[in-house]
């Protein structure tokens, strides 16, 4: 039995981005309830050489929109990366969800053999669609969502596995 490229991408990204929004809601509530400066959480990181929570969220959203766009064969939307608050991060996720939700399954299905090239700085990588999704994009996405979760949990936000997984 095969699984469609759409089923392996958009619903997975959607589930986890919704979960990430819920995690940010809990973090914001925690900061308000404990009278903690929200920036203490937003700029928190697990180790000094890692990205802060804000950047982890932006990168996760970027992997979702970029992956779906590339699989669908459309231009990747460009966002400014200026988000600094919980509200702005949640709006960024909502914008990403709206974009990936606008892509029809028929545009992503059949992309297993599509040539996809990505670049980050001076580095570029080329893949076939299925390898791109399963071996590059999803692991990268989950790394950043997991790191955002870990930052929040490390900072005392009362969240657990169910919060991470979200609704499916």
Structural class: mainly alpha
CATH topology: Four Helix Bundle (Hemerythrin (Met), subunit A)
Q: What is the number of independent domains?
A: 1
N-to-C CA distance: 21 Å
**Succession of helices and strands:** HHHHHEEHH
Overall average pLDDT: 96
The count of DSSP E runs of length 2 or more, i.e. the number of strands, is 2
The CATH homologous superfamily is named dinb family like domain
Shape call:
globular
Number of helices: 7
Low-confidence stretches: none
Quick tags:
Four Helix Bundle (Hemerythrin (Met), subunit A), mainly alpha, globular, 2 strands, two-stranded antiparallel sheet
Overall description:
With 168 residues, this protein is mainly alpha-helical. The protein has one domain (10-165): dinb family like domain (Four Helix Bundle (Hemerythrin (Met), subunit A)). Helices cover 60% and strands 7% of the residues. It is built from seven helices and two strands, in the order αααααββαα. The chain has helices spanning 10-33, 38-42, 53-72, 86-101, 105-108, 129-154, 161-165, and strands at 115-120, 123-128. The protein has a two-stranded antiparallel sheet with strand order 1-2. Helix 3 (53-72) runs parallel beside helix 4 (86-101). The chain is globular, with a radius of gyration of 16 Å. It starts with 9 loop residues before the first helix and ends with a helix.
């Amino acid at each position: 039995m095969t699984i469609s490229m759409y089923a392996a991408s958009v619903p997975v990204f959607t589930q986890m981005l919704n979960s990430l929004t819920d995690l940010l809601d809990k973090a914001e509530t925690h900061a308000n309830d404990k009278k903690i400066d929200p920036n203490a959480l937003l700029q928190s990181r697990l180790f000094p050489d890692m990205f802060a929570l804000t950047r982890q969220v932006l990168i996760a959203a970027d992997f979702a929109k970029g992956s779906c766009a590339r699989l669908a064969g459309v231009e990747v939307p460009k966002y400014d990366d200026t988000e600094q608050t919980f509200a702005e991060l949640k709006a960024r996720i909502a914008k990403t969800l709206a974009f990936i939700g606008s892509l029809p399954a028929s545009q992503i299905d059949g992309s297993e053999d599509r040539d996809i090239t990505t670049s980050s700085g001076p580095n570029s990588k080329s893949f076939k669609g299925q390898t791109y999704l399963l071996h590059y994009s999803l692991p990268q996405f989950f790394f950043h969502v997991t790191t955002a979760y870990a930052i929040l949990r490390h900072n005392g936000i009362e969240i657990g596995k169910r919060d991470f997984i979200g609704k499916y």
